[in-house]
Amino acid sequence: MRQSTSVIVIRSLLIRSFVFFALPFAAFSLPASAQTSSTLIHGLWVWKSPTVLAAPHAAESLRDFCKSQGINEVYVSISPRTEASEESQLVHLIAELHRSNIRVEALLSSTDADELGKHRDSLVQKVQSIVEFNQKHRAERFDGIHLDVEPQQRPENKGPGNLRFLPGLADAFRAVRGVAEPAGLTVNADIQNKLLKGDASQRKMLLSAVPRVTLMMYELSSPGDGDTPAQQAEKAVSNSQKFLNMTYEGLSGSNLAKMAIALRTPDYLDHLPEMLKALDDANRSNPHYLGWARHSYNDILK
Questions:
Q1: Residue 35: pLDDT band by 50, 70, 90 thresholds?
Q2: Under a CB-based contact definition with an 8 Å cutoff, are residues 78 and 49 in contact?
Q3: Three-state DSSP state, 24
């Protein structure tokens, strides 16, 4: 049945009105730091954030550095003192980074959170404090949790093949996810290549405990080793592919973490951006490759 002209006109006006009023709210509901699933991570650590953010125009300087280096997420160190006393600086930093579509993750550290009791409880409480920060500052919220949990630093956990701490570490990751993910926070954990040298069951335990990991691939090169930048890049690429293959060998499933590769400034100095680009060029087609991260912004400030 043909509709009357007046009905069609009214319907058209209603649709236009809905679009006019709905689009601003839809845009507001999207995170300022939204990334598509195909976007490679380009991360940056920021340690000693109270000191870094106390400098004049610190947030703007960090934002500009990230934009110039193609960085799309930043890991900002958080301690109980930082969260309480530097709250206004964090709010300002997050707002500046979000306006440039740069994600911000709260960087939380521990050497003992693999152990049940006060150490793990302390880590989980730090995560809860980030959730509470986000509830208070909904427009300037953290996007994720970045874990720097290093039980391998304790004397009893040193030595090749010594992964006695791994079950507790995986449990700590799951405990953090239990608080973070219901609150809309992603979770990423720094790991060392020692963890990738376990058997398939150990690697599966690790990779199923957290959705993202970042491999600290350090000390492959040094400025005085005599290699050209091209040779250093080749070494970084070959090792990244070796570790990616080692990590997922014999494993399958959709619940395994994806992996980013981290390099550090002292190993490459001004050539670090070339090395990071080489990692992307060589690994972007690997479904397990998440991107790169550089350690750290503090080196730039020296």
A1: low
A2: yes
A3: helix
Instruction: Note the helical H segments in 156-269.
Output: 166-180, 200-207, 229-248, 265-268
Provide the greatest CA pair distance for the chain: 83
Helix axes 272-283, 229-248, angle to 10 degrees: 40
**Bond preceding residue 17 cis, omega within 30 of 0:** no
Identify whether the C-beta of residue 221 lies closer than 8 Å to the C-beta of residue 232.
Answer: yes
With cut-offs at 50, 70 and 90, classify the pLDDT of residue 80: confident
Rounded percentage of the chain residues whose pLDDT exceeds 90 = 84
> What mean pLDDT is predicted for residues 78-96?
86
Mapping DSSP onto H, E and C, the string for 127-169 reads HHHHHHHHHHCCCCCCCEEEEEECHHHCHHHCCCCCCCCHHHH
Give the HSE-up count for residue 193: Cα atoms under 13 Å, Cβ half-sphere.
16
Delineate the domains of the chain, giving CATH numbers in brackets: 43-300 (3.20.20.150)
Find the Cα–Cα–Cα–Cα dihedral 194, 197, 201, 205, rounded to 10°: 20
Could you count the other beta carbons within 10 Å of the beta carbon of residue 136?
11
Of residues 33 and 148, the one with the higher pLDDT is 148
| Residue 195: φ, ψ to 5° | -70, -20
Residue type present at position 285: S
Q: Tell me the C-alpha to C-alpha distance, in Å, between residue 165 and each of 121, 145, 201.
A: 17, 21, 14
Count of alpha carbons within 13 angstroms of residue 145, beta-carbon side: 35
